[in-house]
TrEMBL record:
Name of the protein in question: Glutamate ABC transporter substrate-binding protein
PROSITE patterns: SBP_BACTERIAL_3 (PS01039)
InterPro entries to which the protein is assigned, alphabetical: Bact_solute-bind_prot3 (IPR051455), SBP_3_CS (IPR018313), Solute-binding_3/MltF_N (IPR001638)
Organism: Corynebacterium canis
Zinc-finger listed as a keyword: no
Pfam families in UniProt: SBP_bac_3 (PF00497)
BP terms from Gene Ontology: amino acid transport
Length: 269
């Protein structure tokens, strides 16, 4: 039997000066992101700027701390190095389509969920793949240490698995016929499909997941409890004032559907 998810820490009535004094004194929040997840967090080739749904979320967090959405230092963090980057203090938070799992909660703390995603399959339009059952004997691309890897092993156990470092590598693998499908969350797959009109996302839903902002676990080594509450303050605020929907419509609505912002999930204190 799987262990139940832990709730996050509810926002309190303190000010940012009281919750995150060290970040305020520094003058910026350091955020670990991807730079190759189109629509979520990617570098615009025409301007060199980071853009996407998760980039906007990071800026909203900065807005609530500093009154300025541009007080963010973005640092590229590989999906295999996210937890180490938090533990070492290289970044304050990670906003990188990081699925909340009970196993990960033993390693890092999470905010309340900010996005609900469905794990699905992306393949080429001409490929003879219509469901996970058609993947037997074929090569499926996933990123290493992702929940997509776990899903591929469970839902397509007879497939060959190609593990790469980031999702843009999976698009290249498809285009070069090194893989016939990609298994990931629809938010990530939407970004791949938007870059290649010869791909399609199957209707089959393999699992549902929620993303959270990752923070080093509070304790003797990391004084992060106030930061977690501050992030949750922003997540609640963007849901309440419809900023969440504005971000979703700008970046993801043309490519997928959503039930809306996920419900908050807090622990009893």
């Amino acid at each position: 039997m799987s262990r139940e998810f832990l709730g996050s820490f509810r926002p309190d009535h303190r000010t940012p000066e009281e919750r995150v004094p060290q970040i305020l004194a520094r003058g910026r929040i350091i955020v670990g992101v991807d730079q190759s997840q189109y629509l979520l967090s990617f570098r615009d080739p025409s301007t060199g700027e980071l853009r996407g749904f998760e980039v906007e979320l990071a800026k909203e967090i900065a807005q609530d701390i500093f009154g300025d959405p541009n007080r963010v230092e973005f640092r590229f963090v590989d999906s295999t190095d996210r937890i180490r980057a938090l533990e070492s203090g290289q970044v304050d938070i990670v906003v990188q389509s990081m699925t909340i799992t009970r196993t990960r909660q033993d390693q890092v703390a999470f905010s309340t969920p900010y996005f609900t995603a469905q794990t699905r399959i992306l393949t080429l339009v001409h490929a003879e793949v219509h469901s996970s059952k058609d993947l037997a004997g074929k090569t499926v691309c996933v990123t290493d240490q992702s929940t997509g890897l776990d899903t591929a092993r469970r839902e397509a156990p007879e497939s060959r698995i190609l593990k790469v470092r980031n999702w843009s590598d999976c698009l290249v693998a498809l285009q070069q016929n090194q893989a016939v499908a990609v298994i990931s969350d629809d938010a990530i797959l939407s970004g791949i499909a938007a870059q290649d009109p010869y791909t399609r996302i199957l209707d089959e839903v393999l699992r549902e997941e929620t993303y959270g902002v990752a923070v080093a676990k509070p304790g003797t080594r990391h004084d992060t409890l106030g930061l977690i509450r501050q992030v949750n303050f922003t997540i609640e605020r963007i849901q309440r004032d419809n900023t969440w929907w504005k971000m979703y419509r700008q970046w993801l609505e043309p490519y997928q559907t959503t039930p809306g912002p996920p419900p908050t999930n807090y622990r009893e204190e």
